[in-house]
Structures are given as structure tokens and as C-alpha cells.
Specification:
Helix content: 25-40%
Protein name: Fmt protein
Subcellular location: Membrane
Radius of gyration: 26 Å
CATH architecture of one domain: 3-Layer(aba) Sandwich
Keywords: Membrane
Strand content: 15-25%
Length: 376
């Protein structure tokens, strides 16, 4: 009897072990491998019991982590915040991690802020885009007729801006721009140039009799209720500024910003991804300029208001708007339409840099959010 009991016990244990073996998943190293993008679960296969916005966040998070993304991302859907996440470090030397307050040097996306201020002053009747620049900056350009519209559309022909290290501030930039003058072959043709919006910053100062920084605070920051947006020299926000790095052969090389004092209107503002997305949201909700102005600025080129997709510091394409700036190894880019606003920013740019940050945004926008990105 004792032997029979032992035999039956042995058979039972053997069956349990066999059952468990078939139920256990393969070890990770034996799992099938995939391309990075195939890790993202298509939204049309989501669990019906899981909210769409939650699944979107999970997909975006998995995609960014799989690409070793270092930076921040913010997503608004129908003007409602659905994602605000940070990854990696804002300062590698001191192991300071990015958080939701991380602020990036905005670069050329700064021109959108300048463009909004310009439009506000138009609405207030304080300037006219068809006026000669000399009306607002005496003796600015005497050889060629030049209007504020030419500056706004980057068709002034002004020589490419090169800051003078020996001087300081916006006024020094204007002296440099005046002295280098216009390149005849570029006059009245589209040539992207910081000089245009630096000059518009000075026009804004002269029209309002206030500094560009004052206008930034009262016309943009306060109106859009931005908490983590400031001029480059704000002591109260300095602790939130990210450091920019170029990654060369897996070594992070810090890129020190310089001459920011000379880029009013064109690139010296720091902003969080949340604030940038919120700014675009407020713009599209007619909170920064009138509804008529918003509709005008968001019109397509074939409607005749603007000769190309570029106007007032941003691009309006068929399916979306684009706001982008890259400066001193800070890359920030926003796409928006009537459904989504997505801002992504990185301060670790792998070299040679091939617009990796914007490429990630394109994937997220099209493959995860299922939004069109046709330009024409």
C-alpha cells in the first residue's frame, strides 16, 4: 500500500510539472525579435475596454523608449491634455533628469511668437505690413524699398545675419543688419533669414515703446497663461533650462549657447513642450488674435493671402501646421491640426544629425495618431 501511494504521488507531481512547462512563456532571449516601429501597437487593434487616449499614451511612450529618446513630449487632443512626459536628462554632467518643467531653447519657433505680436499690433492699428520699414526704424534701408511684409515672409533679401561678438543687445543686431544691407539677387525672393525677425522685434519695440521682453510677457506669456516660458536671461527660470548636447560616438558634447542677446524675435526664448503646445492651442482657439486673424493665418496658399506655406513664423500645410526651431543642440517641433497638437523636444542630438526629433514626431503623428501629413 505504501508503495502504491508513493507511485501515485510521483505521477501527480509529474503531471503538474508538465502542465506548468507548457504554460510558461519563452525566456526573453527566445522571443521573436522585431523592428523598433513594430513594437508600437496599432490603434485599430486596441482593447475596446481601454480609453483611446490612454492607449495612445502607452503607444507613444513605448515608441520613444524603444528609440532611446531623451527629451519631452506633450500631446493635446481637442485642446485637452492627454500626455505630458519627460525622458532622460536635461543635464548629463550633473545627472539632472528631465521633468515636465524642462525648458528648451526655442530657436526659430520663436518667430511664431514674434509673428503673433506683429498681428496683434496690426489689429490695434499700430502698424501696417505694407509700410516701409524706414517708417519704424529710420534710415534702415535706403537703396531698396522694403516693407514689413517682406520681412515677415522672408523675402527682404537682407544678408544672412552674423552676430557681432564685440557688441551687445538688439540694437547692435540692427546696426549689423543695416551695415550688411541687401543681397540684390535675393531681393523679393524667399530666403529664410533670422535678420528678418530680429528686425521685426525692433519694429515691435519702437511701435510699443516697450522692450521686446516686455511685449513677450504681456502679449504672449500672460495671454496664453504660460508658466514655463521666458527670455534667455530669466534668473527665476534658469533652473529649468535644459543643456544641449551633440552625441558623437556615444559621447555627449555640451554645446554652450552664445550671443543670445542678439536674437530677440528670432530664437532666444526658452519654453517647455507643454507651454508650446498650449500656446498653439490658445492660438487656434482665437485667444491670441481675433477669429478673423486666426482664420487668415491658417488659410492655405491657394486662397491668395500668402504666396507660400510660410507666414508669421510658422508653416501652414494642407493637413497640418508646423512650428520648428533648432538652436545650440536644442530641437523643438510642433505639429497641429483640428484634432491633435503634439510638441516634442530633445536636447541630445546624435551626429550626424538627420532631424531625428522631427522624424519621431512624424511617426507618432501618422502611424500612432493616424493623422495625415500632406503638405499640398
Amino acid at each position: 500500500m505504501k508503495k502504491l501511494i508513493l507511485f501515485l504521488l510521483f505521477i501527480s507531481i509529474t503531471c503538474v510539472i508538465s502542465f506548468c512547462i507548457f504554460k510558461v512563456k519563452l525566456p526573453l532571449q527566445d522571443q521573436p525579435t522585431h523592428q523598433v516601429t513594430s513594437k508600437v501597437k496599432p490603434l485599430d487593434n486596441i482593447d475596446n475596454n481601454e480609453p483611446l487616449d490612454k492607449q495612445t499614451k502607452l503607444n507613444v511612450d513605448e515608441f520613444l523608449k524603444s528609440n532611446h529618446f531623451n527629451g519631452n513630449i506633450t500631446i493635446f487632443r481637442k485642446n485637452k491634455l492627454i500626455m505630458d512626459e519627460s525622458y532622460g536628462f536635461k543635464n548629463f554632467e550633473n545627472n539632472i533628469k528631465n521633468d515636465n518643467h524642462s525648458m528648451y531653447l526655442i530657436g526659430s519657433a520663436n518667430k511664431f511668437l514674434t509673428g503673433i505680436m506683429l498681428r496683434q499690433l496690426e489689429e490695434e492699428g499700430k502698424l501696417n505690413l505694407d509700410d516701409n520699414v524706414n517708417k519704424y526704424i529710420p534710415d534702415f534701408q535706403l537703396n531698396y524699398p522694403l516693407t514689413l511684409r517682406d520681412l515677415m515672409l522672408h523675402q527682404s533679401g537682407l544678408a544672412k545675419f552674423k552676430p557681432d561678438w564685440s557688441q551687445f543687445g538688439l540694437d547692435s543686431s540692427i546696426r549689423t543688419i543695416k551695415s550688411t544691407g541687401i543681397v540684390p539677387s535675393h531681393y523679393r525672393t524667399y530666403q529664410y533669414n533670422d535678420a528678418n525677425y530680429i528686425t521685426l522685434a525692433k519694429v515691435i519695440e519702437n511701435v510699443t515703446h516697450k522692450s521686446f521682453e516686455y511685449n513677450l510677457k504681456h502679449r504672449i506669456i500672460n495671454k496664453a497663461n504660460l508658466k514655463y516660458t521666458s527670455n534667455y536671461d530669466s534668473k527665476s527660470h534658469e533652473k529649468y533650462f535644459v543643456s544641449g548636447y551633440k552625441n558623437i560616438n556615444n559621447q555627449n558634447i555640451y554645446i554652450q549657447p552664445n550671443n543670445l542677446d542678439k536674437y530677440d524675435g528670432a530664437g532666444n526664448v526658452y519654453i517647455s513642450t507643454h507651454d508650446m503646445a498650449q500656446l498653439v492651442s490658445k492660438f487656434k482657439e482665437n485667444k491670441l488674435v481675433s477669429k478673423t486673424s486666426t482664420q487668415n493665418l491658417l488659410s492655405l496658399p491657394d486662397q491668395g493671402y500668402y504666396p507660400s506655406s510660410y507666414r508669421y513664423g510658422f508653416y501652414k500645410f494642407k493637413d497640418y501646421e508646423r512650428y520648428r526651431g533648432i538652436f545650440f543642440a536644442n530641437d523643438i517641433v510642433t505639429y497641429s491640426n483640428d484634432e491633435y497638437i503634439v510638441t516634442i523636444a530633445s536636447n541630445q542630438l546624435y551626429q550626424p544629425y538627420k532631424s531625428n526629433t522631427e522624424n519621431m514626431l512624424k511617426y507618432i503623428y501618422k502611424q500612432i495618431l493616424h493623422q495625415e501629413l500632406k503638405q499640398k
